[in-house]
C-alpha cells in the first residue's frame, strides 16, 4: 500500500484513556499500544510499542493540571516525530492553561501562547481541540487548528428536553458570544450576568442584565472550575422569577468542593462533556460524550474533506 494511503493510528495519553477508547471505537480503529516508564523521582518516559513510520497519528490527551498531563503530550509528540510519523495531530479535547491568553496585569506569563509554542516545537503538525477559553488562541499557532464547538453535541440534547419559554444565559460578559450563538439556533432570548471578582475564583458582586421571570434558563459556559459563578448565577435567576435553571459547561474541571456546591445549588442539571473525567458521579450532572464528534472530524482530516458541516455555531 502506498505510504500516503496507510491507515492512521490513534494513541492515548494516560489521563484520557477512557475518552480515547470511545473515540477509537467511534472511529473504527483500535487504540495503539503505548507504555509509560516511571522513574522513582517522578520522571516518566512514554514509548510507542508499534511502528508508526510514515503514518498519520492522532495523540489524544486533555491537558488539565497537573502539568504532567501536558508534559506527557509533549513527550509523545516528540517520540512520534523521532519515530518518523508523517503527521502528528495533537487531539486536545480540553486545552489547558487557556485562561492565560493575555497579560491582564503586569509581569505575568501568557501561558496559552507558551503551550502553543511547546506543542509546535515538540513536532505537532496539527492541533484539534474543542471550546477554547478564548477563540484568539488559534492565532498563537503557525499550524492548522481544528477548533470544534461543543454546541454540536449539546444542542440536540437541549432540544430533546422540549422546554417552553426557554432563555439562554451567559454567566459573564465574556461568554455573551457563545450565549448568542446558542440562542440563535434555539430561537430564544439571552440574558447576561455582570460580575466583579475580588480575585481568581472569588466573586464580589453579580447583577443580571435581562428578564428571566417565567423562563426556563440554560446557562452556557466553556468550563466549570469551582462552580462559584454558575451556582451564584442560578440562585440569582431563581430569585428573579425563573422557573428552572440548568447549565451547559463543556469542560468539567470541578475542582475542590465544586460537585458538592452543584448538588446544593438551585441548578436542576449540569450538562458537561467528557473532555475531562469526572472525579465522581452526581445525580445532577449529565455527561454528553464528545467522542462521536472527534472521531468524525478525525475521519475528515484523514480523508482531506471539509469539516465545516460540524459547526452549528
From TrEMBL:
Superkingdom, natural source: Bacteria
Q: What EC identifiers does the entry list?
A: 2.7.6.1
Q: Which CDD domains match?
A: PRTases_typeI
Return the SMART domains for the record. Answer: Pribosyltran_N
Listed under GO biological process in this entry are: 5-phosphoribose 1-diphosphate biosynthetic process; purine nucleotide biosynthetic process; ribonucleoside monophosphate biosynthetic process
Question: Which residues are in the Ribose-phosphate pyrophosphokinase N-terminal domain?
Answer: 9-123
Q: Identify this protein by name.
A: ribose-phosphate diphosphokinase
Q: Which Gene3D superfamilies match?
A: 3.40.50.2020
What keywords are annotated for this sequence in UniProt?
ATP-binding, Cytoplasm, Kinase, Magnesium, Metal-binding, Nucleotide biosynthesis, Nucleotide-binding, Transferase
